[in-house]
Amino acid sequence: MSEQNKGMAAPEQITYSNFLFYGCWSGLALMIVTYLIYVLGFMGPHVSMSEVVRLWSQPVHEYLTQGHAPTGWDWVYLLGKGDFLNFLGIALLAGLTILCYIPLIPAYLKKKDPIFAILALAEILVLLVAASGIVGGGGH
Which pLDDT value is given to residue 6? Predict the structure, then answer.
């Protein structure tokens, strides 16, 4: 590392951090907007507030069964309901690492560093498989 580059972040690190910065703020903004849509009643809930209050102290299985609430990625089918619309911001924040790795692939290829491009792609694939719930049970 040359003297003038000491303490400087690599362009790939800047790209990653910029995606992370704007992604976090976007996710938080989306959470606020979708929460307001829900609270102000612009979209009706899947599980009414009185039902949520009644089931709140019950085991999660009771809540899921009696509230007819989905598990895993099935919440996507209920995005037309205010209480599940809120999940969009959470999903964005949860998937942000995947989104941050995407621009690294062309950046590393441009830098003629194919090993790191392959590692970034592998990271994306591992995270997508983990998020899908195909292996292990996270998506059930």
Answer: 75
